[in-house]
Fold:
Amino acid sequence: MRTGSEPATARSALRARFWLSLWGLVWAVFGTAAFALTGRTGWAVACGVLWLVATVDLTVVLRHLRQGSHYQPGRDVPPYPPPRE
Structure:
């Protein structure tokens, strides 16, 4: 059921996004190196672009995590209550 306040009360799983970004970063680095060594330039460039995207995402996630509980409440903070009409 939509209440119309989802953007104001939305919460992001930043820790999960951090680990997924890190996993993607590791594979993109590996893919770039492997394809560059085997002479497949197109695939190496594609993995390099993915490497860049994963790095930017990881930077944004780390920035939000460092900003504190305003962006990522701890496990002891319950979900926000729905707005009252």
Observations:
- The helical segments are 6-9, 14-38, 41-66.
- Residues 33 and 39 are 10 Å apart (CA to CA).
- The chain is about 65% helix and 0% strand.
